[in-house]
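This section describes the prediction task in plain terms. A model, or a person checking by hand, is given the sequence of a single protein chain and must write out its three-dimensional structure as a string of tokens. No templates, partner chains or ligands are provided. The sample shown here is typical of the held-out split.
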Amino acid sequence: MNHSGNSFIQNRTFDEIEVGDSAQLIRPLRTADIQLFAAISGDINPTHLDPEFAQSGQFRDIVGHSLWGGTLVSAILGTEFPGPGTVYVSQSFNFWRPVTVGDTLTISVTCREKHEHNHHLVFECRAVNQSGVKVMDGYAEVAAPTQRIRRPKVLPPEVKIADREERFRRMLSLTDGLPPIQIAVASPCDADSLRGPLQAAVTGLVTPILVGPDRKIRALAEEQMLDLKGIRIINVQDDNAAADVAVALCRDEGVSALMKGSLSTRDLMRAALSKTTGLRGARRISHVAVASVPAYPKLLLVTDAAINIAPTLEEKADIIQNAIDLAHMMGLSEPRVAILAATDVVDPKMPATLDAAALCEMAERGRIQGGLLAGPLAFDKAVSPRAAGIKGIRSPVAGEADILVVPSIEAGNIVARQLEYLADALMGGIVLGAKVPIVLTTRADTAQTRTVSCAIAQLIHHHKTREANNP
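The expected answer:
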């Protein structure tokens, strides 16, 4: 148990409490309170959790659970008045008006009856908001303690809200107001690779063209209860053909983006990187993973975790520029770029540190533009202000990175997967530098990850279209 130093909790016994005695608690309602109450109680009424539903409802806003106020009464009775040793017997509450996020309740409990034969107390309970308007009243009855109790105060466990659905909506909001784009999906032949683009279509991000075995795709859609109405399917029988056709749609027919289905990355990128029939652009092709991590206050870009195995210095410069350009599209005017290594100092025995120093020099001379670079930086110094401060690193990037540049594909893959599987990051993945954005996810990625990746592709396409129309 976690004791808070010399802080104690103690009660007032039945004999010490007189009719008319009272206690008070003041507490604001936070979004986290609503989410925690829903998680504990199982009450997932959309009035409390779904902003879109709530805006169309009676109160025009998310409202707290009515019994949240009741739990504050319990908090007073159990911790202060009477306090430890109190046993709740009954309660009866009336709820007069809703409580929304930001409202502050003042909860008052006043002793109205004492029953000597069983040591019960009856309390009048009342809650008003910050405007003094009554939101709740009623009565609570308890069996009061008869012996004095004084104990070290035990702090509740720290709780962090990992609201994946809210983070998902926030990532999709990057493309608010943008029309959907056409996307060619190569071999969507398992549940998530089919559900992803279809979910993105329902969300208004893309209009998918499914390239693969028609019969297999339709059977899978029926099995997963997915609607293919209005969806174009191009019937090809194997992964190689699906990759070639999907790439050709982007190259020759104006389709805006390419998406990996259930085929291997090797098969898709073989077609996309073909020197004669592929989608190569002027710059080095690279991958960026976009992560929404509950413990980090902003989106984090990791590059390159999927395409470039052991990039050279010049290739790293292109990789960084690709990521900076994407960050600009996401609304960051000067993204902070941390070039990762195993140490924060340049060490001739560690090539990654030499590259980091050289890349920072290249940025100073204009070879890399639009970002603020620092390196070499160890991972903790890149994302933790505390770690950077302890080490005495003074840099606007240290502890505040927007982009993490890894030294190799192994390091990038490890960082991205640890964020996803151990830190509950919501991920998106995109390949940059080609003629169209390429949604590149793993076979294990969820439909939600694939939908986020489609949103990033949509954002890139419309940004490039605006640039082409306004050179």
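For orientation: The CA atoms of residues 47 and 57 lie 8 Å apart.
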